[in-house]
Protein: 3-oxo-tetronate kinase
Organism: Albimonas donghaensis
Amino acid sequence: MLLGCIGDDFTGSSDLGATLTRGGMRTVQYVGVPDGPADPGVEAGIVALKSRSIPVAEAVAQSLAALDWLRAQGCGQILFKYCSTFDSTPQGNIGPVAEALAEALDASGVIVCPAFPAAGRAVFQGHLFVADRLLSESGMEAHPITPMTDPDLRRWLARQTRGPVGHVPASVVFDGAAAIGAALAAEQGLGRRLVIADAVRDADLMALGEAAAEAPLITGGSGIALGLPANFAVRGLLAGGEAQWDGQAGRAAALSGSCSAATRGQVAAHIASGAPAREVTALAAMTGEVDAPALADWAAAQDGLPLIYSSADPETVREAQETWGGAEVAARLEALFAETARLLVAGGVTRLIAAGGETSGAVVEGLGLTQLAFGPDIATGVPALRAGPELAIALKSGNFGEADFFERADRVLAGEAG
Ligand SMILES: Nc1ncnc2c1ncn2[C@@H]1O[C@H](COP(=O)(O)OP(=O)(O)OP(=O)(O)O)[C@@H](O)[C@H]1O
Ligand SMILES: O=C(O)[C@@H](O)C(=O)CO
């Protein structure tokens, strides 16, 4: 294994894997730290954690355990993947995990760059933009767990770290890899372990990747991986060849616990198309009015792609959280989706689509999946995944996908053109 990656959530890890696979690396996503060694031939391994919003000490411990496993597989370079909207609180977890990994690897002048231009995320003058809005005016300021109220990544990250935070501005990044390398070395000389790097175009990410060819540690969104496969390819280290995707026949189902605007639009489009959909309200989940067997039975009785969703608007979510407590509702819904996924697959579903990072994590863990192989892209940041000989899945980050995402995902998983 050449490149070892640590992802702080499951959907974000599959977003990263899609980029590396497109770049020509044989990539596997592992669900948590594996018990045994990786299969031979894996060039990039991603240990997907659910560490984005857990207590800092646990996130650090899990990430260091992932690092140990990846180093034991021979990885000479480590990539820490977090969200392109830098989802974190003033306590962490991006800063503490990045610092712990840097210390363990004796790395300094480490790139911190969540930019993902294809999804509208750009870093300019140290500030993160989502399309044409500053992060703190993009809707992310109202995120229920990690409200992003400051778009200045240098300031936000500095709150989370012990050491000072550096910056490589766009004016340097535009000058290419050599200029970036010199700037990172200068930041390192000033004792700055972590360095925010500007990037507004894929070309900037390619240049950052080239500059990081020898870096023991890189951190960022999936965009920061754009330039990395070429570093291994020029050294003749990649086996090459297209990853083959055999479409998955059989029955499909979709589960959505994501309440993002993008997902709510996708749910609405699915319903408007006349496809079968069943809502699970927080009330029904909390009172036990609906349970997993009933949901799985309903899905089995539908033609087409049945969608089971708890996706709701912010006001409805807030009311549910005030009534039962946010953590309690989330835990109940996630457990319900996990159990429903188990019953669906046990009942013969072979294509499963999950929407929402936490929801996808619960589904993947509920199904007891251990590793995922990458297929073609369904949408930017959302690949088709093979979870077993008879199971293909898609894990969608809340903010990703076009309006027809669910139908498109089903088609791609089935092996048809998107
Ligand atoms: N109707 C609802 N009321 C309250 N909470 C809900 C409701 N529906 C879902 N939830 C909870 O909201 C959370 C949604 O998080 P999830 O990560 O799945 O989606 P997301 O935030 O849109 O996606 P991402 O993390 O990829 O951006 C889950 O914990 C889910 O259980
Ligand atoms: O970077 C992103 O936006 C995604 O890969 C993600 O991590 C969302 O959960």
Observations:
- The first strand starts at residue 3 and ends at 7.
- Residues 3-233 form a domain with the Rossmann fold fold (CATH 3.40.50.10840).
- Residues 326-346 form the longest helix (21 residues).
